[in-house]
Amino acid sequence: MVAYQTVLVGTDGSESSFAAVASAARLAAACEAELVIACAYSPMRGTELSAAQDQLGAEAYQVVGSAPAEDTLRVASDKARAEGAADVRSVAVQDEPVPALVRVAQECSADLVVVGNRGLRSLTGRILGSVPADIARKAGLDVLIVHTT
């Protein structure tokens, strides 16, 4: 069996996504693989930002721009190293989560994408789609959906 050489994991700063990072880090450590941590962001300004923050409340961290993404990546990288991942790289990507992860997977030649299961069982996820389900359909490589909720 060939071990994974590059493991990609997505994070949005939520505790659920950090659990996925921890799982990916343990797997990368076991395989002696590079771990790439990606965080997608969509910059907003002015009234669009205010409206989004009002609507999203505690989830507003996802729409404020690259600074929160960079902070999220620092925390995620620290968590990954604490789980034993030795070769950790992070990337902030201006895009929606699914296209961002698919693009980063191609750019870094990932052979595995790890995502949490958040959204898979929600009504919104069933109607509009969820990151884990969409990644599983669109990635074109192995996808590990870890139980994080």
Percent of residues in helices: 40-55%
How far is it from the N-terminal to the C-terminal residue, by CA? 30 Å
Biggest sheet layout: 5 strands, parallel
Low-confidence stretches: 120-129
| Mean pLDDT rating | 83
Radius of gyration: 15 Å
* Total beta strand runs: 5
| Secondary structure tally, helices | 6
Q: Regarding quaternary structure, how should these chains be classified? A: single chain
Query: What structural class should be given to the helix and strand makeup?
Result: alpha/beta
Strands of the biggest beta sheet: in what spatial order? 3-2-1-4-5
List the helices and strands in order. Answer: EHEHHEHEHHE
What does this structure look like?
- A five-stranded parallel sheet has the order 3-2-1-4-5, with helices on both faces.
- The chain has 149 residues and is of the alpha/beta class.
- 47% of the residues lie in helices and 21% in strands.
- The chain has helices spanning 15-31, 46-56, 66-82, 97-107, 123-128, 131-138, and strands at 6-10, 34-41, 87-94, 112-116, 142-146.
- α1 (15-31) crosses α3 and α4 packs parallel to α6 (131-138).
Overview features:
alpha/beta; 5 strands; 149 residues; 5-stranded parallel β-sheet; 6 helices
List the helices and strands and how they pair.
Layout: E1 6-10, H1 15-31, E2 34-41, H2 46-56, H3 66-82, E3 87-94, H4 97-107, E4 112-116, H5 123-128, H6 131-138, E5 142-146
Parallel strand pairs: 1-2, 1-4, 2-3, 4-5
